[in-house]
Amino acid sequence: MEKDDFSVFKYLADQNDHVFFVYHTGKQHICYLNDAFVRITNLNIAEVQHSPQLLFDIIHPEDFEYVAKKFREVLKKSQIAPLKFRIICADTTEKWISLTFYPVTDPSQPYICGVAQDDTARQIGIQHLEQINTWKDTMLEIVSHDLRGPIGTTKLLASIIANKVPDNQEVVKLTGMIQDIAKRNLDLIRLLLNRESLGTIDESMSPERIEIVQAIQKAIGAYRESHPGKKFTQTSADAKIYAEVDSAKFFRIIDHLLYTATQFTTDDDQIHIHTQQVEDGFLMTVKDNGIGIPKNLQPLLFTKYTRDQAGELGFEKWTELGLWVTKSLVDLHGGKIWFESEAENGSIFYVKIPLERRLN
Q1: 334 and 309 inside one domain
Q2: Measured between alpha carbons, how far is 142 from 124 in angstroms, rounded to an integer?
Q3: Which pairing describes strands 94-103 and 347-354: parallel, antiparallel, or unpaired?
Q4: Structural domain of residue 10, as residue ranges?
Q5: Same domain, 148 and 58
Q6: Which of 51, 60, 253, 270 could bridge across to 86 with cysteines, CB 3.0–4.6 Å?
Q7: Where is the PAS domain positioned along the sequence (predicted)?
């Protein structure tokens, strides 16, 4: 690049809110940083160029090993996926950074270029969306069970009253109206919750590095509010477990497993979630001491069936659990799901997911 061309590039980069940098791998020297770096980190460019270690000093302690490992992979030209991690500025402000490396492929040019941006606002937005999604799932469950049951009972009672006084046309007319209203509401609920509308699953993945133990804690919190009589407990062999998952899909996995546990336990039963880091992944178990899964249905639990097909096989209510969806979501993460269950002795569901998203 000619000197004049570089001046134009530098001018454009300095007007940008993103950080642009060039790193010489042989000299271990940062050749270029634009002004956005100062605005985001509050560090002095000249000092960082002289002592690149200053960059690692501001990385959040919980993210340090992760970033160091990824940087080593970049030096080997084997990793160019975006990194998302936290930094702690001099004023103790915590920020999320999204960083993408672009290694120069020409062997005679030992450079790594990159772009970084302040991702804090987006991360906060994602957390809010997760809270909204958890609330939505809770509301759907309330509509599905806490409302559908009473409406169905109202329809049945109206029919009984009409049959007891068939000669009272006014009563017959009013109870008929009640039955019609109840039926319309039941049809609306069925339409809203129709599992067949989930016939396809969005297979696109948006992996984010999240803290798993805290994510599960949030999901359990929503269920504690909607099921105050049930006993939810959580333990973890590791205080914190970081993994690259699609947060929206991961919350659906937790939600489906908790939902399954609530449907086959009473208020006196317990639902317990445990997590632990294993090898290159983490293992999540959801255990309950409810009625268990009937043995004849166990081979079919993760199979997709329509409501009519399930009715013919005698397990219509199990299609509402959406466990085939759960398995599909786990598969998208490159994970595995399995279970153990015994009649009247409860069930244990196991989910193992890799800590890092494998690149194709």
Answers
A1: yes
A2: 27
A3: unpaired
A4: 3-118
A5: no
A6: 60
A7: 19-78
Q: Which residues contact 73 (CB under 8 A, 6 or more apart)?
A: 79
Instruction: Let me know if residue 198 belongs to a domain.
Output: no
Residues 326 and 258: their CA atoms lie apart, in Å, by 11
pLDDT in tens, 271-310: 999 999 998 899 999 999 998 888 877 887 887 754 554 4
Query: Do 146 and 19 sit in the same domain of this protein?
Result: no
In a domain, 214, yes or no: yes
The kind and range of the H/E element at 156 are helix 148-164
pLDDT at 111: 87
9, with CB counted inside 10 A (0-12, 13-18, 19+), is middle
- Residue 278, beta-bridge partner list: 281
Residues 187, 220, single domain; the answer is: no
Judgement on whether residues 264 and 348 belong to the same structural domain of the protein: yes
| Measured CA angle at 135 (ends 133, 141), to 5 deg | 105
- Token code pair at residue 165: 């006084």
How far is it, in rounded angstroms, from Cα 274 to Cα 354?
16
Q: Taking a C-beta distance cutoff of 8 angstroms, is the pair 271, 288 a contact? A: yes
Specify whether 64 is located in the same domain as 81: yes
With the C-alpha atoms ordered 235, 239, 245, 249, is the resulting torsion angle positive or negative? positive
Q: Among the residues of 236-356, which ranges form H helices?
A: 247-263, 307-313, 316-319, 323-332
pLDDT confidence of residue 135: 74
Number of compact structural domains in the chain: 3
In degrees rounded to 5, what are phi and psi of residue 11? -60, -45
Ranges of the chain with pLDDT below 70 = 1-6, 78-81, 137-138, 140-146, 149, 190-202, 305-322, 358-360
- The rounded distance, in Å, linking the Cα atoms of 128 and 160 is 47
